[in-house]
Specification:
The chain is of the alpha/beta class. Helix content is 36%, strand content 24%. It is built from 14 helices and 17 strands. The strands form four sheets. Strands 1-2-3-4-5-6 form a six-stranded mixed β-sheet, covered by helices on one side. Strands 10, 11, 12, 15, 16 and 17 form a six-stranded parallel β-sheet that branches. Bound molecules: zinc ion. Zinc ion is lined by residues 27, 225-226, 275, 279, 315.
């Protein structure tokens, strides 16, 4: 009997393989603007490699932050399960101080063999490919310096079901542009040493629940930024317990991983808003970059839930009037700031919120850390006792219109 259970367990383990467990999210807006998101898997070896890289970048950045006026650090990620054993993770770091630094780091970890893969492990004949890669690079990046090109190494790559993507740091290629240089090579043009495909889930559509709200009575909108995260589920439990709802302004690059939580938000009467794709400071972006941040997030949410957000919350609360003309989404800030991420203490969070709430308030909280969990329970309980009805931001805007007419 025991052996049977063991065999079944090992089969499950083999089938499950290495998986993404959560996304760690560090967002700070103090002396500097920091937004870091990276995946945590069930492989400690991979996790250690990723977190020690992130810590190193973070510590180096923090050591220098006092030298500059509002510097910014942004680390975003991609995560792909190549097959049940191999995971591809890329980390893209952007640093803005008195100069712009843009660098890439990739991890291709084979859990079965406990090994970080190199290009030699993946491509059968790298030397033969070398010429084609350099030719394609020169076509795509015409300002690339040919001398530098001869020294290019293939240290950074990821793989999904369609492409092998190669990344090069700008210094390596000596281009004028300070952006990460990449090349997608279709898998069918390569002779690969590693294979096996993964299929994706179907889309589902869930509509927002209709609620009975008396718009003559006090209303308040609770909003959560910077998620989803492993704490979001707990916050949804609390909302459910009090029959309340909230608006979650989600960061696009976490949407796919937390799709269950997103579906639950909609199913239980909450709303999803757009909080950009990689949480960069928007005023630094071109029109095209800004629209890409918005559109990638819209697409990801639509794909996972069927829902298309109408609201946008600017990262770090900063935007210009011009930025607003680049999208149809409605910009939404807040009237009550919990500063939950900063004060890290339930009592202080409550003190920041409760005395300042009035009819029609929009409360800012963040569902990417544990402090928001307990505090949101207390906040909802107290405000319900005071007679507040919880509504989403869209509902709040609708109520304001109704009251005015
Ligand atoms: Zn934010």
């Amino acid at each position: 009997m025991k052996t049977k259970v063991l065999i079944i367990l090992s089969i499950i383990f083999i089938l499950t393989g290495c998986e993404q467990k959560e996304v760690v999210s560090i967002i700070e807006n103090d002396k500097s603007m920091v937004s870091i998101n990276y995946p945590v898997t069930d492989s400690n070896v991979l996790n250690d490699a990723i977190s020690s890289y992130v810590n190193k970048v973070y510590n180096e950045f923090k050591a220098e932050e006092n030298k500059y006026e509002k510097p910014e650090l942004n680390i975003s990620y991609t995560y792909k399960e190549v097959n049940e054993n191999v995971i591809s993770v890329s980390l893209n770091t952007e640093i803005y101080t008195d100069k712009t630094v843009n660098k890439i780091k990739t991890f291709n970890y084979d859990q079965k063999n406990d090994k970080f893969l190199t290009m030699e492990d993946i491509v059968r004949d790298l030397e033969a490919l070398d010429y084609d890669i350099k030719k394609a690079l020169l076509e795509k990046y015409q300002e690339a310096d040919m001398d530098f090109l001869s020294n290019v190494t293939y240290d950074y790559f990821t793989r999904d079901n369609e492409n092998l993507s190669l990344y090069f740091n700008p210094v390596e290629l000596y281009t004028k542009k300070n952006e990460t240089i990449y090349l997608d090579i279709p898998l069918n043009s390569l002779r690969l040493l590693i294979d096996i495909d993964k299929e994706t889930d179907d889309n589902t559509y869930i509509s927002i629940k209709k609620k009975n709200i008396d718009y003559d009575k006090k209303v308040v909108a609770l909003t959560f930024d910077d998620g989803p995260s492993k704490y979001t589920e707990k916050i949804l439990d609390i909302l459910k317990k009090y029959d309340a709802c909230a608006t979650f302004f989600v960061v696009g690059n976490k949407v796919e991983f937390y799709s269950d939580q997103l579906k639950r938000m909609l199913k239980e009467g909450s709303e999803i808003g757009n909080h950009s794709y990689s949480h960069k400071w928007l005023n630094r972006l071109t029109k095209e970059e800004f629209q890409e941040e918005i559109n990638k997030t819209q697409k990801a949410i639509k794909k996972e839930t069927g829902f298309t957000p109408k609201l946008f919350r600017p990262t770090y609360g900063g935007y210009s009037d011009k930025l607003k003309t680049y999208t149809d989404l409605t910009f939404v800030l807040w009237t009550v700031d919990s500063s939950d991420w900063k004060v890290k203490n339930t009592e202080k969070i409550l003190n920041n919120i409760l005395p300042n709430v009035q009819d029609g308030s929009i409360i800012l909280m963040h569902d990417n850390h544990s402090y928001a969990v307990k505090a949101s329970d207390d906040v909802i309980k107290k405000l319900k006792e005071e007679g507040y009805q919880f509504v989403t931001v869209s509902e709040l805007l609708e109520i304001k219109n109704l009251r005015e007419s």
